[in-house]
Write a structure and sequence with these properties.
This is tRNA-ribosyltransferase. This protein is an alpha/beta fold and about 325 residues long. Helices cover about 45% and strands about 10% of the residues. The strands form 2 sheets. A 9-stranded parallel sheet has the order 5-4-3-2-1-9-8-7-6. A two-stranded antiparallel ribbon has the order 10-11. The protein starts with a strand and ends with a helix.
Length: about 325
């Protein structure tokens, strides 16, 4: 399964440079971040990121929405046209919140489908294909209706968004939300005859389960975010603090045996910057981020956390009894 690393376009570190010649690093950036960037060079995205590999562009719908910024089809089309050299472009989407009532969620689904159709038409003359996006919501009939409406237009691939609050079990989600979300992914993979991308679930806690479900690809930005909070991601998921900074959540500090476990994983998977371990882990955000990126891309261990491991085993049992 392919895992894309989410990143702001001008940010450092850049794992695709540090890991050159070792592994390929597909990247996803947001139109929200590109909106005020002047395109450089003949291949603007590849020049901007200094990356010769695969780059996707997300519409940034959630970022615009969360900041109260109105964004339209023409705005997204202009960004996509300016940065024309990506491998994949995601349609503009309007994600429903878990707290939205059915009518509000239904309205957002209609706007998302309309945006996909209109953006596809606008960009068709520039030979830019758009990947449609659907969102999980607790009323699955609405979602499946939206899915079938999109499938009627024969896309080659589709993205599922809105799963993060259900899988991470945040506020306002129903009981058994994690299992319901994973079951929904299984339905989409079974019903859709094409590639399925799951937005935002590229953590090692969940990627082995997505792989069982035959998801084609997923993405994650947590490799940078966790590093900024002084954390490293362990193989199989879970995060540990390696700095002395004060925090208000996720306070578990890394233990000696976990440091050794992480070292052995990095050594076995041929992490190219192993000579800096562990000293740079404590001192350098960039090094922590590179370690996190490597673990995110390379870990396929069974999930470490009991809840995620249970989900993995339940999906495994479900597939075995089909």
């Amino acid at each position: 399964m392919k895992i894309l690393l989410g990143t702001p376009p001008r940010a450092t570190p850049r794992p695709w440079i540090d890991f050159t010649g070792v592994i390929n690093v597909p990247v996803i950036v947001s139109a929200f971040e590109l909106l005020k960037v002047r395109p450089p060079g003949d291949a603007p995205l590849h020049s901007l990121l200094q990356h010769s590999g695969e780059i996707w562009v997300d519409s940034g719908g959630y970022q615009f929405l969360s900041r109260g910024v109105e964004i339209g089809i023409d705005d997204v089309a202009k960004v996509y046209s300016r940065f024309w050299d990506a491998s994949t472009y995601l349609a503009l989407d309007y994600p429903p919140l878990p707290s939205d009532d059915v009518n509000t969620a239904f309205g957002k689904f209609r706007k998302t489908i309309k945006a996909y159709h209109e953006l596809s038409k606008v960009l068709e003359r520039e030979n830019i294909e758009v990947m449609p996006v659907i969102h999980y919501y607790r009323n699955e009939e609405i979602v499946l209706e939206a899915l079938r409406s999109i499938i009627d237009h024969n896309p080659k691939e589709i993205a599922i968004g809105g799963l993060v609050p259900y899988v991470l079990v945040t506020r306002n989600v129903p009981k058994n939300s994690r299992w319901r979300a994973l079951s929904f992914i299984a339905k989409v993979v079974e019903e859709f005859n094409g590639r399925v991308h799951v937005l935002g679930l590229g953590s090692p806690s969940i990627t082995p389960t997505l792989e069982l479900l035959r998801v084609y690809s997923t993405d994650s930005s947590t490799w940078r975010i966790k590093a900024a909070y002084g954390k490293v991601i362990l193989p199989g998921g879970g995060e540990r603090h390696v700095t002395g900074r004060r925090v208000n959540f996720g306070r578990r500090v890394i233990k000696e045996d976990e440091l050794e476990e992480l070292y052995l994983f990095l050594r076995e998977t041929k992490f190219p910057l192993l000579e800096k371990y562990p000293d740079s882990l404590y001192m350098s955000f960039e090094y922590r981020a590179l370690v996190n990126a490597w673990v995110t891309l390379m870990s396929r261990s069974k999930p470490r956390g009991s809840g995620f491991r249970l989900m993995y085993e339940m999906v495994q049992a479900m597939l075995e009894h089909r």
